[in-house]
Amino acid sequence: MGNQRVLSLVQPTGNLHLGNYLGAIRNWVEGQNQYENFFGVADLHAITVPHNPATLAADTYAIAALYLACGMNLECTSIFVQSHISAHSELTWLLNCITPLNWLEDMIQFKEKAVKQGENVSTGLLDYPVLMAADILLYQADKVPVGEDQKQHLELTRDLAARFNHQFARKQPVFKLPEPLIRAEGARVMSLTDGTKKMSKSDPAEGSRINLLDPPDAIAKKIKRCKTDLFEGLEFDNSERPECHNLLTLYMLLSGKTKAEVTAECAQMRWSQFKPLLTETTINALKPIQDKYRAVMDDKGYLESVLRQGREKAQAIADRTLSQAKAALGYSVPL
Ligand code: TRP
User: Fold this and answer.
1) Alpha-carbon span 5 to 141, nearest angstrom
2) Ligand 1: distance of its center to the CA of 229 in Å?
3) CA 237 to CA 228: how far, in whole Å?
4) What is the mean pLDDT of each run of 10 residues along the chain (335 residues)?
5) Nearest to 56 by CA among 86, 12, 122, 88
6) Residue 292 to residue 68: CA distance in whole angstroms
7) Is 10 helix (H, G, I), strand (E, B) or coil?
8) What three-state secondary structure class fits 247?
9) Helix, strand, coil proportions of the chain in percent (round to 5)?
10) pTM reported for the whole predicted model
């Protein structure tokens, strides 16, 4: 285990899909032994838009179980639930009071989501990036794996950390400025129904994504119906064929073959040959994850013990940072 700390959280909304897995989770898992990792379930972020109380807890457990199913190793990785550690909410309040309102109003994701919410935009939605900054800064994270859409939030986190340190902790900085951990090239997974759009859990078309927990018949159906083209043969990197590039990339990533191998294997193929191959490869690649997920979900006691351990480790670090922040702001911190 290295001495650099990596932290990331995933919201418990909807299912994780191949884009999340190939674009993010698989990379974290592959590199996990080089770092000390904290992976959380962002259930406080989940209520910034209308949510379903009846499924919140189950959805939260499901993400934690999927983390385990995807191969997170508990020797170097702690898995925790954001709402279990009250320091997240508390630091958010402290940071709120040093966050200029216009920084939040200018956030791209806020503006996009606010349009969708219409009249019902909550203060929490506006404050979402400050909660995310608290998540990161509490752990003194060195690296945060983020996708393109979260880069602006990480920038804000760095700006807030610098502002706090500058205003209140000049002699001894309280917060470390985190760096983004950019994902490996070639792992950008696009929608199955439009090769120019990212695979996304907010896409209303269920057929646009393959979820990690999709049963084999659903996978077969989605691949059967996915968008293709009328060119001859299959190839990477033809900008007129975004779907072809995406499906070959999926095949490459899921089969573990190199780009050169896939290029040679598929050059002469027709879609009717390639689709069953991709279907079988996808089903086989997801099977171990699905088996492990079921085993974890069937053993609630185990999952709870993992989350308890994760919480203990996370809480100790988070509470220490919170105390330092409070002391810097001038609070009398009870001993
Ligand atoms: N906002 C992130 C997303 O939707 C989730 C998130 C919450 C996060 N807190 C975080 C990611 C801290 C990285 C670090 O993807």
Assistant:
1) 5
2) 36
3) 15
4) 90 88 87 95 96 96 96 97 98 98 96 88 96 98 88 97 98 96 73 94 92 97 97 96 97 96 97 98 98 96 98 98 97 78
5) 12
6) 8
7) strand
8) helix
9) 60, 10, 35
10) 0.91
Measured distance between the N- and C-terminal CA atoms of the chain, rounded to whole angstroms: 32
> Is residue 198 annotated as part of the catalytic site, yes or no?
yes
CA–CA gap between residue 55 and residue 72 (Å, rounded): 24
Q: Which amino acid is at 232?
A: E
- Choose, from 151, 176, 197, 201, the residue flagged as catalytic: 201
Tell me how far the alpha carbon of residue 204 is from its chain's centroid. Answer: 19
Which atom of ligand 1 is found nearest the CA of 10?
5
Sorted by sequence, the CB contacts under 8 Å of residue 260 that are 6+ apart come out as none
Q: Classify burial at 63, counting beta carbons within 10 Å of its beta carbon; exposed 0-12, middle 13-18, buried 19 or more.
A: buried
Q: 184 in helix, strand or coil?
A: coil
Tokens of 167: 């205003």
Please state the three-class secondary structure of 278-294 as a single string.
HHHHHHHHHHHHHHHHH
- The catalytic residue among 113, 197, 292, 313 is 113
**CA 78, 79, 82, 84 torsion: positive or negative?**
negative
Q: Which of 151, 198, 257, 292 is catalytic?
A: 198
| Ligand 1 center–CA 6 separation, angstroms | 13
